[in-house]
Design brief:
Length: 245
């Protein structure tokens, strides 16, 4: 397939047009950012690791019944995806209190929530991706009420699957971010990526609050061993997928 133009470059990926207008090519970068890109760096082989993890998880979610933008992965750091118009809402699903939830509510880090919490954030870097109420979401006309309900329900379904999958990997899914897009038929598809960049993952067997971290928090908080953590997550994902076949 010939790639003929770059459409967009984000913090973690570059999107290219292809000879099929319904298909895009996502190239995963090694660049790492945190705090709305105020902190920048790179993680060795992050692009390959995140692309491979995302590809495996999208395929498993498709089997589970969740429709995604994933088509295939022509090489370790690139993914062919269906062209979608991204809904400008970042959906965060929380199972355990951590990060901004603990900062803003006072809930101690590690508090297990009685039920998953679904939050919507405005996907807007200039505004700092603020937390949205449903009324503000509709005021800004970011999505219709029907689309929001669909996204909310899909997010909970994805969470149900991922919690079980990560548990098989010996990993606790604390919280994670999802993005959704509309295809040419206005169907809502799970998009973007699912990786240690977008999930807060803790090693279930490790009690130490720093040693248990297996995600981008190692980069955010200067905990070290970032590459090793990402590689460990990849190996566990591949082993879990292999065990299913």
């Amino acid at each position: 397939m010939s790639v003929y133009s770059q459409l967009y470059e984000g913090k973690a990926k570059i999107l290219y047009a292809t000879d099929n207008p319904e298909v895009l090519l996502a190239d995963f970068k090694d660049d790492a950012t945190a705090f709305n890109a105020q902190k920048r760096g790179s993680i060795i082989d992050k692009g390959k690791i995140n692309c491979t993890i995302s590809s495996q998880l999208f395929q498993q979610l498709e089997i589970y019944g969740i429709k995604t933008h994933y088509i295939d992965s022509p090489n370790p750091h690139q993914m062919r995806v269906k062209a979608v118009k991204i809904v400008p809402i970042e959906v965060v699903i929380r199972n355990i209190a951590a990060g901004s939830l603990s900062v803003q509510t006072g809930l101690p880090v590690g508090t297990v929530l009685k039920q998953p919490l679904v939050e919507f954030y405005y996907k807007n870097d200039q505004l700092g991706d603020p937390l949205l109420t449903r009324d503000r979401l509709f005021l800004l006309e970011l999505a219709t009420p029907e689309q929001v309900d669909t996204i909310h329900n899909l997010a909970l379904q994805v969470n149900e699957f991922l919690r079980g999958f990560w548990q098989q990997c010996g990993i606790t899914l604390v919280d994670f971010k999802l993005e959704f897009g509309l295809d040419s038929q206005q169907q809502i598809l799970l998009a973007d990526e699912i990786s240690p960049d977008t999930c807060r993952l803790w090693d279930t067997a490790e009690a130490d609050p720093n040693l248990r971290v297996m995600d981008k928090d190692r980069f955010r908080r200067d905990l070290g061993n970032v590459e090793n953590a990402y590689q460990e997550v990849l190996q566990r994902v591949l082993q879990a997928v292999e065990s299913k076949t």
